[in-house]
Amino acid sequence: MAKTLDDFITQATDEIEAEKPVSLQIGNDVRELNDDEYTNLINQRAKAYYDAYLFNYIEARQVAYGNIGDQLDMMYKDQVDGTTTWKEHIAQVKADNPKPS
Length: 101
Prior knowledge:
Blueprint: H1 5-19, E1 23-26, E2 29-32, H2 35-65, H3 68-81, H4 85-96
Helix pairs in contact: 1-2
């Protein structure tokens, strides 16, 4: 099931509630965050989680695909040997690192 930003807001809210009180230091003054600052902290954390959820699969796929030279070598050997190693490799990378919907 695809996750939404609201799912990550719930997660961030739970985490920050468990971390309270969160303090802010400005100069020599230390105080607890006010309600608006807590809301901003929750939203920032949730957005970071959501962005990671949406885009980390891209980096994971790039690493798993391997370099272009190796992929071209796989394709060449598949053509010569009549195999489907490259297609299977790409399919496995996509299966292991699905794109969030």
